[in-house]
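Technical annex, item 7. During the second reporting period the consortium partners agreed on a shared format for inverse folding records so that results from different sites could be compared directly. Each record opens with the tokenized structure and is followed by the designed sequence. A conforming record, contributed by the partner at site C, is shown below for reference.
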């Protein structure tokens, strides 16, 4: 039995995704283990780099720290614009827009529902095209859709034009909501991912609340059209930055470098056999020549080649097929539903707080998002500070060996999600001070981010070969849930009251968090079983260019 009760596998000597992370500790227990591998620098000199970077200067893992930060900052800025801001852009002004167009508030809510439907429907195509031709074209095309949709929205004078604008904007979201997570795996090693996972999940989850704080006063003081007018220059700048400073991160790396994707079957060879094998490998596999680093202008190419030999139909099916993996299905449901509860809250904010006894204006409703924004910020800071040090601590106590299940230890603060949702519903039902409701909203978002970050980090570490498909299908799932909520959550709240609505959501949130221990204890054995009985391979579906 491994550290903290993780059950060891009896079939594979090395289970994929189980890797030596702390060489000092590993050497004490197994001398020679980890020798000849590349390590981190400075205070991370004892950390084995996973995956191992190649010698190619064009390998994204070999990009400088500054270049990686610039790339993540630009794509993160795009995520703020498209994944975090566009969907809730009109939320504080739903009542204002409904009055101007003389439509029920439900009709205006459904406009955003159609946007989310487009996001969910385009997800598989974004996944397939990014696997085939890389992530860079998807980012560029998505940002152009966002710019065009925003320009249309700035000219909208009727319901149908506004609907058209929102549908066009919907095509801008998928890439920034899903590929950005797998991009972390393209650029960063296992011991570096926790901070960036926390930052990106904060953008995808909590940053939308800050947009409501800004959008509310703009709607109240300038009118809702100015939301689009002000958005246009930011969208244009993002297009330019993406083109010049975000090169392709998709990379076909030799299989031997993927320490977290390879396995050893059967009984270990004797030392003499190992030495002989190493000698044969050395003789028969000459070192490939190292290509020169691409120039700045070469890196600005929109299309840089083909990264998969699969046909598009296979690649379109792949995001759905990965759900045959039970652990992946758990990740999709847990991360998707937790964020869906946050969106459900945003749908009913104007409905609850624009009515008596609160009677808040659009700007007042927007200011209420300060509570969840602070809660989400604290959650992201907490996870950013705790996630990577925690897996380092657990790995040292596991003889230097890292198990992806260590990421799930951060799921348990997610219990605050259920508590916050239930308290929020109760306080709204009792018409308590909106300061109290905003505090409860912040508590549930703290828990939601803990759940989303822990589940996503586990997915990218345990099943990195499927990471793009995992986050694409997760995005599809949650956006279809968002769309469904847009049809009934306002009516449900009006008929049953906010207490019942958020008691149900809080109960589901509790259930998702307490479903974690089975995956924590049996996850390693399941990874071994999946490797030996990969249902995707049986269906001739590939999820990684190197398979």
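Designed sequence (site C submission):
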């Amino acid at each position: 039995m491994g550290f903290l009760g993780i059950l060891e596998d009896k079939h594979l000597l090395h289970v994929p995704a189980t890797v030596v992370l702390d060489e000092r500790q590993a050497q004490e227990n197994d001398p020679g283990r980890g020798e000849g591998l590349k390590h981190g620098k400075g205070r991370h000199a004892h950390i084995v780099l996973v995956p191992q970077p190649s010698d190619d200067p064009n390998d994204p893992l070999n990009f400088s720290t500054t270049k990686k930060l610039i790339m993540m900052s630009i794509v993160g800025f795009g995520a703020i614009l498209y994944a975090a801001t566009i969907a809730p852009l009109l939320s504080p002004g739903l009542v204002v827009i409904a009055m101007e167009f003389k439509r029920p508030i439900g009709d205006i809510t459904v406009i955003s529902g159609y946007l989310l439907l487009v996001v969910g429907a385009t997800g598989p195509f974004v996944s397939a095209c990014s696997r085939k031709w890389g992530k860079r074209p998807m980012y560029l095309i998505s940002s152009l859709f966002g710019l065009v949709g925003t320009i249309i929205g700035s000219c909208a004078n009727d319901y149908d034009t506004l609907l058209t604008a929102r549908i066009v904007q919907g095509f801008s979201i998928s890439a920034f909501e899903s590929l950005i997570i797998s991009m972390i795996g393209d650029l960063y090693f296992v011991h570096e991912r926790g901070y960036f996972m926390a930052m990106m999940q904060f953008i995808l989850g909590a940053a939308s609340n800050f947009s409501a704080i800004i959008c509310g006063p703009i709607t109240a003081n300038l009118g809702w059209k100015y939301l689009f007018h002000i958005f246009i220059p930011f969208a244009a700048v993002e297009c330019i930055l993406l083109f010049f400073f975000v090169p392709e991160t998709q990379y076909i790396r030799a299989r031997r470098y993927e320490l977290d994707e390879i396995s050893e079957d059967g009984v270990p060879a004797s030392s003499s056999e190992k030495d002989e094998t190493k000698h044969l490998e050395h003789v028969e596999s000459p070192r490939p020549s190292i290509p020169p680093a691409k120039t700045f202008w070469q890196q600005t190419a929109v299309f840089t080649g083909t990264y998969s030999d699969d046909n598009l139909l296979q690649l379109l099916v792949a995001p759905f097929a990965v759900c045959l993996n039970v652990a992946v299905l758990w990740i999709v449901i847990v991360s998707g539903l937790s964020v869906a509860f946050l969106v459900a809250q945003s749908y009913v904010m104007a409905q609850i707080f624009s009515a008596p006894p609160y009677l808040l204006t659009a700007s007042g409703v927007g200011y209420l998002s300060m509570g969840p924004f602070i809660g989400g910020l604290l959650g992201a800071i907490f996870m950013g500070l705790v996630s990577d040090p925690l897996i380092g601590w657990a790995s040292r106590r596991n003889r230097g060996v890292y198990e992806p299940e260590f990421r799930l230890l951060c799921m348990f603060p997610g219990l605050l999600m259920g508590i916050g949702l239930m308290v929020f519903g109760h306080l709204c039902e009792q018409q308590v001070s909106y300061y109290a409701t905003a505090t409860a909203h912040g508590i549930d978002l703290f828990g939601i981010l803990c759940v989303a970050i822990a589940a996503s980090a586990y997915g990218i570490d345990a099943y990195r070969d499927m990471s793009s498909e995992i986050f694409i299908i997760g995005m599809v799932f949650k956006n279809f849930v968002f769309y469904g909520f847009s049809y009934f959550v306002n009516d449900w709240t009006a008929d049953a009251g906010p207490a019942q609505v958020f008691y149900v959501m809080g109960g589901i949130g509790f259930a998702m968090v307490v479903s974690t221990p089975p995956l924590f204890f049996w996850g390693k054995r399941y990874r071994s079983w999946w490797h030996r009985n990969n249902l995707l391979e049986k269906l001739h579906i590939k999820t990684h260019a190197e398979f």
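The chain has one domain: 64-252+310-538. Residues 266-285 have pLDDT under 50 and may be disordered. All partners now use this format for quarterly exchanges.
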